[in-house]
Amino acid sequence: xxxxxxxxxxxxxxxxxxxxxxxxxxxxxxxxxxxxxxxxxxxxxxxxxxxxxxxxxxxxxxxxxxxxxxxxxxxxxxxxxxxxxxxxxxxxxxxxxxxxxxxxxxxxxxxxxxxxxxxxxxxxxxxxxxxxxxxxxxxxxxxxxxxxxxxxxxxxxxxxxxxxxxxxx
Length: 169
Description:
By secondary structure, this protein is an all-alpha fold. Helix 2 runs antiparallel to helix 3. The longest helix has 21 residues. Pfam families: ETC_C1_NDUFA5. It is found in: Mitochondrion inner membrane.
């Protein structure tokens, strides 16, 4: 028992460098991660239960916490999580804790149900370097199928669905 408690940490592989400038090796990364993930799960409780942000954070944080509790070797933790080095995971966990505080402060889920977002339409020309994301024309078979379906139901083809693709300029 004594040899396991003392010998295992001494025989564990020691990471010399992360290979990332400015990111130092954390010798007790597993313990730091367990602490950060536990704090994250505690802090996220302030976010309403039905919010997607909370569900997402709880889900991946619980998974990562469980892996850190199950594994003792930093290499195995990195391999099982597949999200980078443990030092990077520590940075991400710290950032997530900061973000949780900001999200609670900003309260994006506090929008009333009857709130209507103002839509601003602007006819200003779009600069050439900005992608337009205009969908290409649909295949001719689509329009033939649509005409056949509409003919069966004896409905007229709406003008926007004619086989001549019309792009609004």
